[in-house]
Amino acid sequence: MNFFEHQDRARRQSRRLVVLFGLAVLAIIVAVNAVVLATLGMPQYAGYPPADNFWLANAGLIFWTTSLTAATIGLASAYRSVQLRAGGGEIARSLGGTAVDPSTNDPLRRRLYNVVEEMAIASGVPMPEVYVLEHEQGINAFAAGYSPADAAVAVTRGTLEHLDRDELQGVIAHEFSHVFNGDMRLNIRLIGFLFGILVISLVGRRLLLSARYARDSRNAGPFVMVGLVVVVIGYVGLFFGRWIKAAVSRQREFLADASAVQFTRNPDGVSGALKKIGALYASSFMVTDAEEVGHMLFARGMGRQLFATHPPLEERIRAIEPNFRPEELKELAKRLDRHAQARKAEAEQAAARAEQGRGPGGLPLNPDTLIERIGQPGLSQVMIAAALAASLPRPLERAAHSDEWAQEVVCFLLLSRDSEVRENQLLLIAQTLGSESERQVGVLWQAGRDLEPAQRLPLLEMTFPSLRRRPHKELIQLMALIEQLVAVDDRIDVFEYSLARLTARQIQDAMQPQRARPGGRKKLSSRAEEVVVVMAVLANHGHPDQPEVAQAAFAAGLQGLVEPVPSELAATADWQTSLDRALRRLDELTLPDKQRLVAGLSRCVLHDEQVVVEEMELLRVICGLIHVPLPLLERPEAG
To answer: Residue 20 sits in which domain range?
Structure first.
């Protein structure tokens, strides 16, 4: 099962969840109506007509009871969901999480940030915010957010202190699989739905408390009964809601473990982390109340749960290591040393500094497994991402990780090599961001003027977490400045287009994460014209001086997508405008049709088994604008 199938499955589960939630709400409404009618609607309390006119006489009461119950649940669920749309960082902070400073010198936090960043670059998803739950000694982690654009990854202090790099990598890969598989949006909906049901029981408790202060005990009787029964109804609804949550969560934990093994190609990483949870005295349990987010965690967050949100630990380990023996946990418990990982992390940093002079090793590509690698990149992609990050000049790397200078890194990447054009760009920067920003961009230019083309987009992606933390007004201003910087020389190249569109997409998705949906409802047959436009742009830029080769690549890409395949490759003079219009409509495709489109794009790029930087940059921005994460891929063998 690949990225597109996982996302489609998550969408189907979300729809089923909405149906189940609707049935639960309907059952609660019926039960509340029955209670209210049995107490307030009976003739002895209200003097209503005899039983043959009972339903007609109480139609108004039924209407208001139904409306108030449905509104209470619906508004409470919507309120909680809106709260959670503030981003995964909001959930992490509510649990006591502290953001990891990208420039930290702490070896354990540096290791954590590097692992998350390497996986984000390797898989082509936005770099999430990174948090540590400082007061939690158990081993646990979670990924939260409404979409990859506002995601956050959080780990406990126990995770940092007890897991080595391979095990930490396995845990983070497990959390990234939840991002790829569409689980985060599903988790947000689970929290919102259950909160709405919980509010019904809280309303019942409020009725009980109000009745205590009533002056007339006889008049208070019906309210006591209604309050008591509504509390029971609310908790029964919550009971079934938690059962649904546990069933959904357990199923997807096995999937996330398997995806993490496939991602890292190292089963010892995930299984080692699970074994240490079993061996550690603090296990995975959290001091903070983890009931609401229990289904989002790497392992169980509470010692006692009526419905376990995770499969038993030994079953998860045996799914990875069939020969696992429980006795291993006792042996492991004797060897655990929370200081050992700090010493290892310091050694890793020293080794990384020694390797920093090495380049990224060429443009990555693997033509045979592109579709399968989307959402499931391998260890080779992580290694390439680590090499790319390590090879960046230190001033650029530090500025990209800085909240203060991330905007200046984006501006630096757009500076022209033509001195006259560059001076005009610096003047625009000074007018928009100030003279200090202009000076900093000049410093970055001196440090990174020889930056390799393959390093530019990874550097841009490293800035996104810091950019997303800026006020919305500043982000809108930055998008306008980018367009001005690009337009200074009255031309736009592929990299400038890619930077402008990817940055705008990141900012828009971060500001409105609920709109960042992986798939729509349109069929490929209804977007044939747009497919031809995109394929033509890609083929022309891949072979600008080889029209026959470009025509062959164009035809190969369209094979099976458009019938009949156009006999001539159309010219793309104003290709930016045409591509913008086409990609907006292609983002509305269903997930299976997006899969077919990306497969066609890869056939076009790989037709001659020679890939230029412009092709990879275009492929990356096309996939980014239709919400498909494109991983770093390996170069094909020379023919």
So the answer is: 3-87+187-253
